[in-house]
Amino acid sequence: TGWWMSEKLDGIRAYWDGSQFLSRNGNKFHAPSWFTEGLPADLHLDGELFGGRNEFQATSGIVKSFAAGDRWKKLTYEVFDAPSLDLPFEKRLKRVRTQAERKLNAYMRVVQHTLCEGNEHVETELDKLTKDGAEGLMLRKPGSKYVRSRSTTLLKVKTFQDCEAVVVGYNKGKGKYEGQAGSLDARLDNGIQFNVGSGMSDGQRRNPPPIGSIITVKFFEYTKDGKPRFPTFVGVRVDADKSKFAKWLIDGND
């Protein structure tokens, strides 16, 4: 009760540092100048480059491209915080809203936040959003300071779990997928190997993510042997930290 509730957007996390978009690991996203025109030079922003619900793969393709051009028009910059302000969350969000109300940038939006009234409110809102194709909810502690890393003041609420894994091989497709990838062999950072094919488009089966790619997989729960149960391919991570998978990239499937 009393926490701020907002939709968890299934986009690409992006920091605006006053002159450019950066990934969580500090790599530059090559947005066209007309997309960033009017974003503040004196205020850092945190948000998601968003192409709509269930459009993560398309959004990722645009953001990681060096020459996506007009395809950036399909995206918005959904802002939920201002990292450069050493203020409580509510005052940071107010400053973000003031910036957006100036309408200096055509693609900036402010993520809507609602004051949570309790567990039933969370469950009702989560059920409503997920039925509409949303990924889940975020809960922000009132009065909290900005923390760039994972924090107990900002919580995810989802009806499923997700994880990152590295692609280490392919399994041949059958039937309509003969000659294509039926599924991916993937490994978690702890070395546990599993297969995932659900969620892959026909194009991705024809041209699967290269071996060594870091992918996001959503699933229901972990099995007793630590594998994701009912895994579904979400997409390739644009800017994943590959260091935790280095051993499996070197050792292959051994």
Briefly characterize the structure.
This protein has 254 residues and is α+β, with helices and mostly antiparallel strands. Helices cover 19% and strands 31% of the residues. It has a six-stranded mixed β-sheet with strand order 4-3-2-5-6-7. The chain has a five-stranded antiparallel β-sheet with strand order 13-12-11-14-17.
Whole-Å distance between the termini? 49 Å
Number of strands: 17
Gyration radius (Cα, Å) is 19 Å
Largest sheet: 6 strands, mixed
Contiguous low-pLDDT stretches (5 residues minimum) are none
**Widest β-sheet, arrangement of strands:** 4-3-2-5-6-7
SSE order: EEEEHEHEHEEHEEEEEHEEEEH
Quickly count the helices: 6
Class inferred from helices and paired strands:
alpha+beta
Q: Determine the strand fraction and express it as a percent band.
A: 25-35%
Helix content: 10-25%
Tell me, rounded to a whole number, the average pLDDT.
Answer: 92
- Overall shape: globular
Key structural traits:
alpha+beta, five-stranded antiparallel sheet, six-stranded mixed sheet, 254 residues, 17 strands
